[in-house]
Amino acid sequence: MHPKERRSAATRREFLARTGGAAFALSGASGLLAACSNSTTTAGSTVNSAGQAVGPGGLPLARPDRRVTLPLWEQPIPSGMKPETGGEFTIFNYPEYIYGALLKEFGKKYNVTVKVTPFDDINTGVAKLASGAVQPDVTEMTPDNLDRVVAGHLIKPLNLDYIPNLKKNVWPSLVDPFYDVGSRYGVPYTAYATGIAWRTDQVKEDIPSMSNPWDIFWQAQAYKGKTALLSEVRETIAMALLRKGELDINTEDPAKINQAVADLQELYNICNIKVGDLQYSTIPEDKAWLNQAWSGDMMSAFFYYLPNKATGPLLRFWHPVKGKGPIQNDMWSICTTTKKPVLAHLFLNFMLDNGVAYSNFVNFNGYQPPLNEIVPEDLVKKKVIPETLATCVLTESDLGPDSLQEMTLTTKGQSLWQDGYSTFLSGA
Amino acid sequence: MYPRWLWPAFAIPGVVWLLILFLLPFYAVIGVAFGNIDPILQTPIPAWNPINWNTGWVAHVLNELTPGGVYWDVFLRTIRYVALSLGGCILIGYPVAYYIARHASRTKSLLLILLVLPFWISYLMRMLAWINLLAPGGYAARFLSFTHISDLLYHMGLLSQPNNYLGGESFTVIFALIYGYIPYFILPLYASLDRIDRSHLEAARDLGASPFRAFWHVTLPLSKTGLLGGAVLIVLPMFGDYYTPNIVSGAPTTSMIGNQIDLYFHGGPQPTIGAAITIILSAFLVVLMGYYMWTIHKSSKELVA
Amino acid sequence: MSQAVATPAATKEFTLWQRVYGWITNPWGKPRFLVLITWGYMVWAIAPVLIAIQFSFNNSRSLTVWHGFTTKWYFSDPIDSIWHNASYRGALNQSMKLAAIDVLIATPIGVMLALGLARWRGRGSGASNFLMLFPLVTPEIVMGVSLLLLFTQLFTFVNTGTLAQVLGHVTFSISYVVVIVRGRLFSIGRSYEEAAADLGATPGAALWLVLMPLLLPAIVASAAIVFAISIDDFVISQWLSNGANSTTVPMLIYDATRATPLPSTDGLATVIMLITLITVVAGVAVFRLFTRGEGGRGSAVDDVAGFGM
């Protein structure tokens, strides 16, 4: 499928946003619960026996400054085995989130038929894995869900001997990430920062030079009806926290969350703020002028959605310096249900190949892989993106122990955040 | 002539279908609204047996539906939008239905076809059409600007900015709701007006009633069932609307109660709240429906008497 | 307007405004303000759709400014034309499939239910009647939520996707069939069947050979209407969808409307509208063909207009 066709298909990001009309395939829940109670964790409570806060899976909450080593629930496969061939190889993923030509290439190399089974959103995906309704070989994963899927034994530990590209090509901080010390359960796929996107022909302020760029939303009177925030529980409230200098974007303090929501509510009168995740098309089409956005959005906008070439140089993206704004990444993991564990490892290695990852990025995906070889200056030099959008490309230096990432909350914390967003959405 | 069991037997497949796929689902919503959440998957664990009901979620939603609560303002806004849209539908729809039923002669067939036509055009296409008409540079936007109607609306306080209709305006949402739902209102109203026996009116006129008095004392009461039927057909579905404000506005300041249901079912650990809002909204609508039934029942008795 | 300019001599010295005013308020003719409102409403109701159709032929990406005529958004654009875009075609396919299956299931169930409800006088008939009316007024989000929870909590063997969508569509369609067919049943009355019985027909023959042919036009009309409301449905389809494989045209239009609709979005809506209109016109034509000579009242319009009463 040509990448531009994705314009009419719902994108991966949209799917993240409307976390699925169908997130409730529960049939496997009891099995998963049983699996968890067999392990030594205390599933469901918000603290473990040591008094640490834990996520829904009962494992300690990982933070960039609090590294978590996930327990090995089984031994990884031994090194030096031959890859399985023949038959089908199934990838469980967001729709339209991987370049089909690359999958054909992989299938040809190992004589398998590669199929993609799509899920609406990661919650649905986890529920389906737990129910056994799908039995894929590899799955897309996000760091904030690792706790649940490891506790539920839904993904297998990795033998990194099969994945040399991880150490060779990937940003060092993601070779050994804080959420999974030693990359025991997954390898990174894409990385993206949250920031502000705007059009220079409509927005007069020089946002990056403002003392607090997030303030732009609170002085957007002139852009009334043309200003929007991401319709994401976590991103929207985190932005209001960051604006006030509150860097703990995983806080579960009701007072802080309520204050952030109250700040967001000021935006009703200031600019009649809108919510939505469609900035990659509304900004180039002039339907919106100023938006909270992900770094991949303006690159997608430039790659696919430009109504005319003249708009390209008008697009801008800013994101906070390291440690002042969220940077997230997605991952690949191997499913417990795989019948081809060696080939599954080789697939993870394949996706981290410099050429493969680059092609996936610029030919289809728009979201960048966290590889050392992808450098903003190069992309500008090759005219893949204009110089004005170099800010959309992240580098290793954006990550690290003092970086921010929206991570797993306790169940109670998630409810607090959702209720806060509900208050904001009520528009009163 | 037919065996007694025949007609109930005919009804059985349909009744069973509706019991299983219309009524039983409400029980599924109740089970979820009074249930718990799976701690790991964050999916609902429904409570099917009322003994095990956890009333916390429903109590929470009811509490937030009181003045000062999170859902209070959005619910009031929903009622306001629905009421104003109904008012608009009556103001526009009644004269149209009345004219076609009573006065149109040569053009009646054509008017009827035009009246039914929007019924068969996708709601979303009709919304899409207005999005493009009202967008900057669109035909309607240019017309409203050229005729200064836009400025007038702005000075009347109906728009918060001149010439920006899609920037999150209540006015646009209500306009879109009227446009979207009015076909469903006009048709039953037309049918009831068309059914009125002209001899009633002639009698009133013969007895010396002015056209206005004849309308007020004869036509209007006789069209009451159609008016109420049309109102029920649009009011109840409108209470669950969330897509119209999403399409023509997208701002929290124009959200409706359906948007809250939508939010809680799209991820997060509280689909139970979504289910609780759904149940409470349904109960509210059943009360409205009951009022409608009662009124119809009463007026049909009056007509017989 | 012919009436307005019918008496030029007498009105010569009046201004245009006075003439228009006089025409509207003329107390002796038809209530002219009603004429204005009615035709104004018709223009308001129909013209936006006609303009949307016009822009599906626009020779640019714009949906607001006209740049000349093209059919490329239907056929030739390699990426965004309806013909070439796989997701457009997939959605059209899914919409048609749902509508066709819906008709095949909802029509027979609805016809039987109409017969049953119209003639069954006993315990449970009143409640069944009630039950049948409620889907007509239940907000779609309520039905969407409740069906979703039914399929994910109770009937977990039904996966979201096409099967769930079909079950949902049939559920909201049955009542429409009942209302239309029952209206026809009442207007037919029972005399034909009684006459047949007097002439010695068995109940089966009276039902099948006498009543069914008389009901046929209403059945055809209701099938057409079921097809139309199924193709038009957005909310139920969305709530019961499982992603890209069960996306329908209204879902695509909704996504595009909030992001950036293209002329091909208008084109897709136009195609769906044409399919619906052709189906409905065919249905009404069949209805008319069979009910000719029964007097003016038996039109499908009246049947449709009888919703909810």
What labels would you give this structure?
heterotrimer; A: 428 residues; alpha/beta; 9-stranded mixed beta sheet; 15 helices; 33% helix; disordered N terminus; B: 305 residues; mainly alpha
Would you give an account of this structure?
The complex is a heterotrimer of chains A (428), B (305) and C (309). By secondary structure, chain A is an alpha/beta fold. Chain A has 15 helices and nine strands. In chain A, helix 8 crosses helix 15 (411-425). The radius of gyration of chain A is 21 Å and the shape is globular. Chain A starts with 11 loop residues before the first helix and ends with a helix. In chain B, a hairpin with a 6-residue loop joins strand 1 (36-37) and strand 2. Chain B is mainly α and 305 residues long. Chain B has a two-stranded antiparallel ribbon with strand order 1-2. Chain B has 14 helices and two strands. The longest helix of chain B has 34 residues, at 271-304. Chain C is mostly helical and 309 residues long. In chain C, 68% of the residues lie in helices and 0% in strands. Chain C is built from twelve helices and no strands. Chain C has helices at residues 16-25, 32-55, 86-119, 125-137, 140-154, 162-188, 191-198, 203-232, 235-239, 249-258, 263-291, 300-305. In chain C, helix 8 (203-232) runs antiparallel to helix 11 (263-291) and helix 10 packs antiparallel against helix 11. The radius of gyration of chain C is 25 Å and the shape is globular. The two termini of chain C are 37 Å apart. The model of chain C is unreliable at 1-11 and 295-309 (pLDDT under 50). Chains in contact: A-B, A-C, B-C.
The helix fraction of chain A, in percent, is 25-40%
Total DSSP E strands of chain A: 9
Determine the mean pLDDT of chain A: 84
Oligomerization state: heterotrimer
Rg over C-alpha atoms of chain B, rounded to the nearest angstrom: 24 Å
Number of strands of chain B: 2
Question: Overall 3D geometry of chain B?
Answer: globular
Tell me, rounded to a whole number, the average pLDDT of chain B.
Answer: 90
The major β-sheet of chain B equals:
2 strands, antiparallel
Q: pLDDT below 50 for ≥5 consecutive residues: which ranges of chain A?
A: 1-44
Q: Measure the end-to-end span of chain A.
A: 44 Å
Structural class of chain B: mainly alpha
Q: Note the total helix count of chain B.
A: 14
